[in-house]
Amino acid sequence: MLLGGDREAWRGASLLSISQLDREGVELVMRVADNARTESSLLGGKVLCSLFYEPSTRTACSFLAAMLRLGGGTMSLHESTSSAVKGESFEDTIRTVSCYSDVVVLRHPTPGAPRRASEITKTPIINAGDGTGEHPTQALLDVYTLIREIGGIDGKTIALVGDLKHGRTAHSLAKILRLYDVALLFVSPPGLEMPGTQEVVSLEEAVRVADAIYVTRIQRERFEDPGQYDSLKGSYKVDAALMATAKPKCAVLHPLPRVDEISTDFDDDPRAAYFRQMENGMYVRMALLTLILSPPSK
Amino acid sequence: MLLGGDREAWRGASLLSISQLDREGVELVMRVADNARTESSLLGGKVLCSLFYEPSTRTACSFLAAMLRLGGGTMSLHESTSSAVKGESFEDTIRTVSCYSDVVVLRHPTPGAPRRASEITKTPIINAGDGTGEHPTQALLDVYTLIREIGGIDGKTIALVGDLKHGRTAHSLAKILRLYDVALLFVSPPGLEMPGTQEVVSLEEAVRVADAIYVTRIQRERFEDPGQYDSLKGSYKVDAALMATAKPKCAVLHPLPRVDEISTDFDDDPRAAYFRQMENGMYVRMALLTLILSPPSK
Amino acid sequence: MLLGGDREAWRGASLLSISQLDREGVELVMRVADNARTESSLLGGKVLCSLFYEPSTRTACSFLAAMLRLGGGTMSLHESTSSAVKGESFEDTIRTVSCYSDVVVLRHPTPGAPRRASEITKTPIINAGDGTGEHPTQALLDVYTLIREIGGIDGKTIALVGDLKHGRTAHSLAKILRLYDVALLFVSPPGLEMPGTQEVVSLEEAVRVADAIYVTRIQRERFEDPGQYDSLKGSYKVDAALMATAKPKCAVLHPLPRVDEISTDFDDDPRAAYFRQMENGMYVRMALLTLILSPPSK
How many structural domains comprise chain C? Predict the structure, then answer.
């Protein structure tokens, strides 16, 4: 279902892919997230169930905190603690948790699992990451952070850095940024390029011209040759020295957790946006829960 | 303590056994459960602790969701995650959780453990299953589902199917149904008959005449001879073909999870009541929490 | 930061050490705890995160229950269930949980970890035990219990019994009691004396003269010679027979869990204060959350 600028379309909808949103939809989320920073309770008596088939403390916590701040209640079923998640059929587990909840936040290693869940139940499903598939709420919080940090997207130059072949975060972000008039730069090791593009620039060049730099992890397990990984990771490290060559307001984002792609020596720089980005995740998720769960205003 | 039609008796009471209820008590729960389907918050600032010495995701979740919908708070201590549950004496654990909670929902493998708990503390205890003992809230949600699905209990024919010797669910349900003017049919393999009765009918005959069929699991671990189990389970399977011989409004219930006693090819039949039954569990538990915890109305 | 009798100083403050409080600060907590026994909701939409790097069901539960009773929401990250707690740097974990919460309740095996956390974030940190360091909320609930049980602290004689060398509970309590005009008696095995004091009395003598007895565990793992432990523990057991020689209103406290320092044959004696002490923990923690989180009254 298309999720655009009309709030009625959002009510009771599942959020499965960033492709459901047009630019008006993205901007509606941004406006509601701004309100969420000072919002009071709305969702008293509503119940969110987080159903995580693989761990993700940051994503899980920010959804739980978002629901609690809106006055709602939360239940968690995680792979490590729930026998149901381990033993039962996926279909029957979805039927169970959805009959007790007003919204199910689902993380699953299999691409498409959230869509399958949304076909089993009428309860809204929010995709909180489906393997190499999508992570739409991450993309929305990334855009929200970019807009807050650099004052908008149109006319900006944004560099995506890291493993752009496998990183679903970078894929979803690139998809949503294409709704804007933006110049994208791709910085990635040979063999890890963004699918569908051959243009790659060096990290040094990207840092010099970008209005924002979005850094992602290069995951060791993607490499057959560990030596290759070790030689690469050093060349993709953002630190205070490198950032001395960047624009004075160039924002640095990272979905976290980081390994060592960003040096801690940069953490206190005002351009280090990644901790604010993490907090923004809570406001964007409050916005999504508000849009999906709040009753029609009179 | 007897839990009848007078709400005052319920306030602050423990629910340990279905034998505490008379027919007026059962009907009070049904009425309050109907209200719970549209109820607003009542129990703000009250705390429910779920204390599970063995896993039961469905029962735990439905109690948590029930409390959250009523505006209350929840804490969970489960065997897998809590050192207290593992190491401390049962008595001291009950004293601990009950001093922090307004109600304790207790599942324990030992029959009588909830009663023992209720003797240690003044905090109400709800029995959420005590081994081969009882599971009174399951029996109440079963009756609630039967009433909603087939329009009442009096004058109806209800078949109980499965291992009726060991299944506490079937025992509690039979006990509560005897408060009504009902014909009960028992369908069980040789050696697994309902205690105190020798009348057994075939599944085919039961399906033909029943107004509702209550199917339970035949548990493999009860059989010394695995071959015997394998030969039996096929003969106790409810599927679309068999249900073609049943009454057009015959409801099929199951406490879930199912193994293969009910074929998924029957799931979309309007007579398949087991998923609605699961949701009803939340409303019945909301009713019980309301009766036990809500302050006297002025 | 000093936490005294002025409520403004408490708002948004971290509670790291009992040394932050003067006597006016202690008495403010006691007054707010008294109010908490009948208090209604205050903290709707606020979020507490309990972050426990080692298990402590009692402390964790009483904080969760305290927050829920005040109408707030709770999230728990415990070592056994959270990958973040296991894998990420302490600094980044603190940044994560604190950006989603209004207060972080932290237990950590390393002394000073709560102070380190409070330097990383502006979110208030409450020390819920840092190894051999402090456990300030336990000391406050101990004092609160003493005041309720024996009518005040000034002019009283209070005996501390057990391993006074290693027990942080006894250390913190002694520190806070020195704010009062109190006589302290120390009962401990040779080698396990309270640091900075050589005066030790026998358990029999202490019991005869004390207005209150605070018993702690003697931990087996502190002894190199298990035989020495076995010979000691019997001589430090409070039971009904011994308490027959005590004052008729002498209160017996214990931070729990107990092993066998207090015989269960004393549990029903009105002087057995340890279960009331446990419940008081919830009210004291409600008081602390109220002081730290509630908005300025108009």
Answer: 2
